[in-house]
Every structure is written in C-alpha cells, then in structure tokens.
C-alpha cells in the first residue's frame, strides 16, 4: 500500500470509518488502506509517534482523544482552533496538523434540505462535545441558535462561547415551548435514543417546515425522529454527518474530491 490512514479512539470496534474510506479508495483506485486502532488514554503519546514512524499520512481521532491530542500537534486549522477539538490529523513533511471536520460535515449534510442558514432559527438539544462543534458551525453560517440542555449551566457556557465568536445564541429550558412553532432546524445531540429510549418530551406542535436531525445513526431511526416524521417534518439521522465529516477529512488528506455516493452506500450496507 502506498498510503496509510486510520482512526484512533477507545472504544473503537464500532467505528464505521474504515468501511467508508476503504470503499472510497476502491472506487477511485487509490492505493491506500484505512485501519482502526484502539488507543487507551495513557498510550496516546506513544501511538502518535508510532503512527508517524510507520508512515501513516493521516488519521481520524474520536472519543476520548479529540481534545487531549491537541498538545501533541504542531499546527491547528481555524476549524480545530474554533472547536478546541480535533477529529482529523494530517502528517506532512514532519509536521502534525490538527483539523476538525465535524461542524462543516454537519453543515454539508443539511444544506441541501435547508438551503439557507442566514437568519433562520436552530434549536439544539444537548450541550456536550458533539453539540459544540455543530453549534459553532451553525452560528458561523448566521443562524440564530437556542441551546436547551438538561443541565442548564452547560448550555449557558456554550452560549457564552458562541457570543464570544460573534454568533447569535441564547439558552432555555429543556422542555417544549413556543420555539416549536418557529424552529427551522432542530438538532438532537444528546445520547438519549442510543439505547432506544424515548426522548424526555413531545414535539407536538412543531412547525411542519422544520428539518429535524438526530445525530444518532444506530438505530437509524430513533423514537425522536419517528415522532418528528409522524408530525409531518423532514428528518435526517446522523449518517449524513458521519459521511460528510469523513469526506472532508479525505479531501484534507488527499486534496481531491471524495466519492461521497459510494462512501455513503458502504456505510448503509454496513449498518443494514
Ligand atoms: P458528547 O460529547 O457525545 O456530546 P457528552 O459530552 O457526554 O457527549 O454530552 C452528552 C449530552 O447528552 C449532554 O448534553 C447531556 O446532558 P447533561 O449535560 O445534562 O448531562 C445529554 N444527556 C445524556 N443523557 C440524557 C438524558 N437522559 N436526558 C437528557 N439529556 C441527556
């Protein structure tokens, strides 16, 4: 193999990235391989040295290393700096460059459905790491954000960060309310639904114009998305975000367009 890529994290056995990237290399006949490695936190430094020594050109970074990898890198792209988290590393001419494609991957996954972002209203449920990247990217696109989290202090902290970056955001109660009638984009970023449990509140009364996204992709349709669909909304699961963050990482490493359709098919086949 001419080029080597990987994903590091812990746990890692459920990562779908190898299927998506390897399908892309096959489609474009690129002589490359993408592997996954479980890296425990106390071995992070050695594993970075190892990947460099073994000739890896780049790797994705997932939980729990997205923030802790930063001190080992030589440069950060503006996207990584803004999120203070790295999901993609490029090793080039002895330099390690940290990048983040999560936020822009999310934007790409919803832009066909949403068309315009500027001035539209987004409500984000949750305030964890996954929400942060999405919120900062949506704010940069000019959306007006409302962040609702079970623990309000975390939502307020995220709002402060967005305001500091020049975005528009406020926080509110983690409950249904008037916002349901005016929301253009509703994003579910909490871990509720991963274990197939119902979302804590009903979406009854939601605008039928709303695009409703759940960043969970396994199950492919959470109870949250099922309810939104029943109420007449367009819905999307987290596969789109996974696909486009991968496609953007691919483009960052290889400098050419990723075969998104084939990569998406590989993801779906793996999940079915
Ligand atoms: P990630 O990095 O994947 O976003 P995280 O930082 O642990 O993970 O954040 C998980 C999010 O899911 C948080 O917003 C969390 O709410 P709290 O900040 O109140 O903990 C939310 N969450 C998890 N379980 C929840 C539940 N049962 N009800 C509501 N929110 C929940």
UniProtKB/TrEMBL annotation:
Residues of the SDH C-terminal domain: 238-268
Domain named Quinate/shikimate 5-dehydrogenase/glutamyl-tRNA reductase: residues: 114-162
Pathway: Metabolic intermediate biosynthesis; chorismate biosynthesis; chorismate from D-erythrose 4-phosphate and phosphoenolpyruvate: step 4/7
GO CC annotations, alphabetized: cytosol
Family: Belongs to the shikimate dehydrogenase family.
NCBIfam families for the chain: aroE
EC number: 1.1.1.25
Coiled-coil regions, chain positions: none
One Gene Ontology term of the molecular function aspect: NADP binding
GO BP field: amino acid biosynthetic process; aromatic amino acid family biosynthetic process; chorismate biosynthetic process; shikimate metabolic process
Catalysed reaction, written as an equation: shikimate + NADP(+) = 3-dehydroshikimate + NADPH + H(+)
Organism for this UniProt entry: Desulfosporosinus orientis (strain ATCC 19365 / DSM 765 / NCIMB 8382 / VKM B-1628 / Singapore I)
Group of enzyme by EC: oxidoreductase
Residues that bind shikimate: 15-17, 62, 87, 102, 245
Protein name (Swiss-Prot/TrEMBL): Shikimate dehydrogenase (NADP(+))
Active site per database record: 66
Pfam families (UniProt xref): SDH_C, Shikimate_DH, Shikimate_dh_N
Keywords: Amino-acid biosynthesis, Aromatic amino acid biosynthesis, NADP, Oxidoreductase
